[in-house]
Amino acid sequence: MHRGSSKGRRTKSRRPETLPLSASPALTIRLEVLRAGHGEVFTRRVPSGTLLRSVLRSVGQATEGAAVLRGERPVPLDLPLERDEEFTVIPTFSGG
Question: How far apart (Å, rounded) are the C-alpha atoms in residues 1 and 21?
């Protein structure tokens, strides 16, 4: 069913939607990787919402072979990071 032409009728022009151009704020994530006899500290700047798993990979850690602790509590590897944090990483296999 045809309802007629809209050429003769003017509607208010809609304002275009604008999205903010700012990116997610960068977070500072500190990983202390403990190994027998020594430890290494890595610091990474990542966007808010990055998964902990991605940060572990960025420092060369096998995600399936490490336990990650926040303080004394284990945390899941799929944890989205929302603030500056420090984690302790304990490799759980020798790789051999």
Answer: 44
Structure tokens at 38: 């020594």
What pLDDT digit, counting tens, does each position of 46-82 carry?
A: 999 999 999 999 999 888 888 999 999 999 999 999 9
From the list 89, 91, 90, 95, the residue with the least C-alpha distance to 55 is: 89
- Residue 36's CB: how many other CB atoms inside 10 A? 7
Instruction: Report the run of H or E that residue 33 belongs to, with start and end.
Output: strand 26-35
Provide the phi-psi class of 26: left if phi over 0, else alpha when psi is between -120 and 50, else beta: beta
pLDDT grade, residue 2 (50/70/90)?
low
